[in-house]
């Protein structure tokens, strides 16, 4: 459970204790780390898997990233936490043409901060959202019994040495009881 709690009062129903909740604006380019800090939680990341795979092994994602055949792609899966509580699972595909090497230890922390330390700037993301039911593995990792996940699919562009390039494709599954996205017109 999240350690930070809040009291929610509903007129005519009573007061209830609830876990911290993130409401994120779709216009925001904030990272998961910044989201956690915004509600007073300590952000965390645990690397579950890292490997180099060839682009021809992931044709759908390679097409999204406009990758040539047999280009290596960093593939890593991370469990994202707030105050040690699992909140999201991210599946990440990063082009080695844009980011040739990754310090794997850095993946246990903020990936955005790691990019900044290498002088990359995130300049934009193409984002899609949908509600999905969790797989048994996602239930286990997120320590949930039921409920929907909020699936975010993003193609992220970065700037490095004055050149904009598509960095990668990122799928993140957020615990729908903790995360809300909002859109302002």
Molecular structure report:
There is one protein chain. The chain has 185 residues and is mostly beta strands. The protein has helices at 32-38, 59-64, 111-117, 136-142, and strands spanning 5-10, 14-19, 22-25, 43-54, 72-82, 85-95, 121-132, 149-160, 163-175, 179-182. It starts with a strand and ends with a strand. The chain is globular, with a radius of gyration of 17 Å. The chain is built from four helices and ten strands; from the N terminus they run βββαβαββαβαβββ. The strands form three sheets. A six-stranded antiparallel β-sheet has the order 4-5-6-9-8-7. Strands 1-2 form a two-stranded antiparallel sheet. A two-stranded parallel sheet has the order 3-10.
Structural class: mainly beta
Number of structural domains? 1
Low-confidence stretches: 1-10, 13-18
Q: What is the CATH T-level topology?
A: Chorismate lyase
Number of strands: 10
Biggest sheet descriptor: 6 strands, antiparallel
Task: Report strand %.
Answer: over 45%
Number of helices: 4
Distance between the termini: 34 Å
Classified in CATH, the superfamily is Chorismate lyase-like
Q: Strand order, main sheet: write it out.
A: 4-5-6-9-8-7
**What helical percentage do the residues reach?**
10-25%
Outline? globular
Averaged pLDDT: 84
| Gyration radius, in Å | 17 Å
| Order of helix and strand elements from N to C terminus | EEEHEHEEHEHEEE
CATH class: Alpha Beta
What is the annotated CATH architecture? Answer: 3-Layer(aba) Sandwich
